[in-house]
Write a structure and sequence with these properties.
The protein is an alpha+beta fold. It contains 15 helices and 15 strands. It is globular and about 85 Å long.
Length: 449
Amino acid sequence: MKRLLLLLTLIPTILCAQNSISGVFTPAEQFTYAFLYRATPTGSDYIDRAQLADDGSFSITLNENATLGIYKIVYALPPEENNFDFIYDGKESVKFTFDLDKGLEFTDSNENKLWASYMKSMDLVNRTLSNFYTQESTDKKAYLDIIKTMSDTQKAYEDSSKGTLASQFIKANTPYIPQQFEDLSTYSKNLKRTYLDHVDFGSPVLQSSDFLIDRVLAFIFGMTVNTNNDTYKKDVDHLMSTIGDGNIEIKTILFEMIWRRFKETDNPELANYVADNHLLELSKKVNYDALTEQLIVYKNNTIGNTAANFDLAITKDGNTVSTTLHDLDLSSKYLLVFWSSTCGHCLDELPKLKALMTSSNDVKVIAFGMEDDDPTNWQKVIADYPDFIHVLGLGAARAGGDPTDLSKWNNAVVNQYGVSSTPSFFLLDKNKTIIAKPYDVEALEAILK
């Protein structure tokens, strides 16, 4: 009877057993904390953190009502570069090892081990197929054997993953499977054509993971050699039609990633194409005001557009005369440079710019000083540059901005030009059209030559 009572007392504990997320980081001395987040389609929610033990291990116990789905471990800064996703199905604990050299390996969690095993198996098949094409083989039987292995592998994992969250990833990753021998060119075209066919963009599980972003970026940037702008535009449009109606927030996130990649690779034509044809409308629909402003500012400051106008003063016949940038008629070219007296790099570049201007008589420099709320240091520095047109831009001068924010970045003109670092250079022609945006004085010199 006592044994029966003991068993009855254990039943609630068994039924309410809590799962945990635990792991070991190697080398241990390179890590301090593990931060746990639950990923969502539009971000992530902080759950808990754990300090690592001397051997690099940690464990975080989850609430018994923890939501199943995609979770994220952040293990270093910056967080966007030092993290990984994993699946939590609410039924089992998750254990892993993470080595800086060997990477991530799950030691306990059927869902994650299944997905990792699938990816390793498909990677092996794809490498075999890649070697076949590399060797320029024409052995059709060998080719079809590889394709059959690919097909069998996909089917086997789809069958074994039924009823799991991992099945959504496995189905979304379904490869293109030729029905007959194809040369490399034909296979590559068909691979790209079908690359997004099995992706369910409406799946909250896929939306919460890195899978969609990785898949989309691979489709746009990683699947075609010698891609020109027209091809990129077709791919961007194809992506929009593939995602279809709805899913506005995830579309906004994905197209913002694409826009930023074109922006970072200095391709304003494609960045503005993405914004004008897709992203700007999406951004407005989801009320991403900051993104909307970034898109507009970036386009307005693209080479070929007229620079934003602002007030300034010049010395004429010994008198100070108020005017505007657009009304200046002093030179065939103007160099607008945003700088700050507290910026060490600026103070290195300005003397170089002064020296360069001695041999560039057709360029007039407009030096826009970005200062917080005290112009004292700025006044000292500009004394060394009497031939420049100087404009003082203090903080808290941004229309609609926080009047208590005296930061030099809180300035209407600075924000009109989308200045995010100092110094920033804009080379303008006589009509104040932006003709170049050199990175530094050295690049400016090359342009002027």
